[in-house]
Amino acid sequence: MSTMGGFRRYIAIVGRRNVGKSSFMNAITGQEVSIVSDIAGTTTDTVYKSMELKPIGPVTFMDTPGLDDIGKLGQKRVEKAKRSLYRADAAIVVVDNEPGEYEKALVSILREIDIPFMVVVNKSDVLEQRAQTLKKLYEETFSCKAAVVSSKNKAGFENIGELLSEIIPSDEEVPFLSDLIDGGDIVVLVVPIDLGAPKGRLIMPQVHGIREVLDSEAVAVVVKERELRHALENLSCKPSLVVTDSQSITKVISDIPEDVPVTTFSILEARYRGDLEYSVESLKTVEELRDGDEVIIMEACTHRPLTEDIGRVKIPRWLVNHTGADLRFRVIAGKEFPKPEEVETAKLIVHCGGCVVNRSAMLRRYRIAKRLGKPMVNYGVMITYLHGVLQRCIEPFGLGVSV
Ligand SMILES: Nc1nc2c(ncn2[C@@H]2O[C@H](COP(=O)(O)OP(=O)(O)OP(=O)(O)O)[C@@H](O)[C@H]2O)c(=O)[nH]1
Ligand SMILES: [Mg+2]
């Protein structure tokens, strides 16, 4: 199996106190990073350790404090447990006994926040044959994968990586646009060549679009917005799809017949890299924004802001115009999704297209936003929405705006 794109995965080690979570982490990483003792509650803060784990690639294990009274714990502690897991791509539930209320509560939390998990039956050196019985019991009770190890003897660790790679979402690629067209179709790509365009070349989404049209054995007609009308008049049939830059979407829509499917490069990117459906669904929050509400502008890189920056200047301005509300904006930029407490006060997150990160990294950011109950809208989706033309631009994907 190939490594998963060189993208770092976070794996939470969870379970009752004293089952051997810290010992498991030390054994799998081959380092004594986490303190082990027979006193329950030894680990009080999450301990991180990074390594290369075959066949996954770079992973960071998170050794979490055991939450013992989870079965009967109140809403507040459940919330706390969920938050401590916010960035996990998968979890390992460590056990040394039969599944009880604790494990059931833990598994239901993991399921609720959509974290895939496997069970590790630890302490096989003392459990002996019972370890295999427990493994089967867990597999049946939770319909999950399970393994048997002894952290003490460092035994049984050979296939943990393989099992984890089977449960971690593989984030299968989606096409950029090839599923929207058939061989022989005519696809018109509207590419603005303005001052912002790079000298002598096209930008990635445009190149990507042209390439997929060609791979689909369809015909790519590439025009600037001024030539669009002329091109349409000279085509012997209607295009099956028009793709344009977000900036010229209003003009393009006015130039093409109503029954021609149209979308933007940013929306294609939003689907290709992220979660287009969640972005669209999150738009209903825009209509609920009131005076004083906070909106986070989130960027996956730390580029130097431009004077008329889309995220920092234009979107805030358009959002204020649209809602008529006195909104507060805060920019958070960086490779990692911020900690839950940093986004706590936000009503809405508006996220950049993530051109510097891959699909897995972007999907992970959407998963975290969902876990934290934060609506998150992609820039391109937001711009098209604020220009009043989103419905038309998402019809090609069979989506609709419900606001
Ligand atoms: N025999 C045996 N003992 C183990 C094994 N793994 C852990 N232990 C013992 O179990 C006790 C608890 O281990 P820890 O690794 O501290 O357990 P933990 O789950 O991290 O505990 P908390 O941090 O308190 O939640 C220690 O006394 C370990 O030596 C194992 O594979 N075999
Ligand atoms: Mg511990």
What order do the strands of the largest sheet run in, or round the barrel if closed?
Answer: 2-3-1-4-5-6
Backbone structural class:
alpha/beta
Q: Write the H/E string, N to C.
A: EHEEHEHEHHEHEHEHEHEHHEHEHEHEHH
**Which fold name corresponds to the CATH topology of the largest domain?**
Rossmann fold
**DSSP strand tally:** 14
Quaternary organization: single chain
Question: Number of helix segments?
Answer: 16
CATH superfamily grouping of the largest domain: P-loop containing nucleotide triphosphate hydrolases
On the 0 to 100 scale, the average pLDDT is: 90
Number of individual domains: 3
Bound molecules: guanosine-5'-triphosphate, magnesium ion
| Residue share in helix | 25-40%
Question: Architecture of the largest domain in CATH?
Answer: 3-Layer(aba) Sandwich
Radius of gyration: 25 Å
CATH class of the largest domain equals Alpha Beta
First and last CA, distance = 43 Å
Estimate what percentage of residues fall within beta strands: 15-25%
- Large-scale geometry: elongated
Largest sheet: number of strands, sense, barrel closure: 6 strands, mixed
Low-confidence stretches: 1-5
Describe this protein's structure.
- By secondary structure, the protein is α/β, with parallel strands linked by helices.
- It folds into 3 domains: 9-167, Rossmann fold (3-Layer(aba) Sandwich), CATH 3.40.50; 178-260, Rossmann fold, CATH 3.40.50; 277-397, Rossmann fold.
- 35% of the residues lie in helices and 17% in strands.
- It has 16 helices and 14 strands.
- It has helices at residues 21-29, 75-84, 101-112, 124-127, 130-142, 160-167, 204-215, 228-234, 249-255, 265-273, 276-282, 310-323, 340-343, 359-371, 379-386, 390-394, and strands spanning 9-14, 47-53, 57-63, 90-95, 117-121, 146-148, 186-190, 219-223, 241-244, 262-264, 294-299, 328-333, 348-351, 376-378.
- It has a 6-stranded mixed beta sheet, sandwiched between helices. Strands 8-7-9-10 form a 4-stranded parallel beta sheet, with helices on both faces.
- Mean pLDDT is 90; it is low at 1-5.
- Residues 17-23, 36-38, 40-43, 65-66, 122-123, 125-126, 150-152 line the site of guanosine-5'-triphosphate.
